[in-house]
Amino acid sequence: MFSFSLVTPPAVEPLTLTEAKAHLRLDTSADDALIGTLIAGARQWAERYTGRAFITQTWALSVDRIPSDRDERDGMVDGAIGSLDGLRALNLPRAPLQTVTGVQTFDNDDTAHTFSADNYYVDTAHEPGRIVLRSGAVWPYAERDANSIVVTYTAGYGAAASDVPAPLRTAIAGIVAHSYQNRGDANAVVPASVRALLDPYRVRFSGA
Question: Hey, which bits of 9-164 come out as E strands?
Fold first, then answer.
């Protein structure tokens, strides 16, 4: 089993308040607070939908244990584990991957140990990004039953809104407009036109 959690959120949003208001054709400040909330919500929805991080942010992937070859044969390998040459890759949710800060293992008394970066290399070309064991290296033994291996890493297109591809920013504007126009409607569905902008960016998170 694995889980991943946000450690450091993005410092800015991919869409500014001014840009959102221009898209909505608003020239008053009455709903500025609401629109700011809608921008954050739209970005979070689009990130979940695509499996990406837009603005630079830090994540932590926690893995209970590295499966064995038998687990792979029995179909018990989950999406965090890549099947590259016998389970030698560990996929990191939220593309694009920028850097890996470190890998820690935990023993039964919760003491943390650093897994040396000499044992793996960081593959930022793959989506999702991943760490791959170097020849001769092996994953550390999982002493703790849960969250025995934790990988901390940075993902995103960059620190500025302009680093995010234009179609993604346009999609966020579309979600904001849809949410603003359908306030109070819990059943409002993101329009197909917005999903069409996001679909080419969806990351297929699997063991491949």
Answer: 57-63, 81-82, 89-91, 97-106, 112-114, 120-123, 130-133, 149-155
| Cα torsion 112, 118, 120, 125: sign | positive
What is the domain partition of the chain in residue ranges? 15-52+160-201, 57-155
Is the per-residue pLDDT at 66 higher than 90?
no
Give per-residue pLDDT as tens, 141-167.
878 888 899 999 999 999 999 999 999
The pTM (predicted TM-score) of the whole model is: 0.86
Q: Domain 15-52+160-201 belongs to what architecture?
A: Orthogonal Bundle (1.10)
Task: Specify the DSSP element, H or E, that contains 41.
Answer: helix 32-50
- For residues 108 and 119, the answer to whether their CB atoms sit within 8 Å is no
Closest by CA to 130, choosing from 155, 163, 105, is: 155
Sign, CA torsion 5/177/189/157 = negative
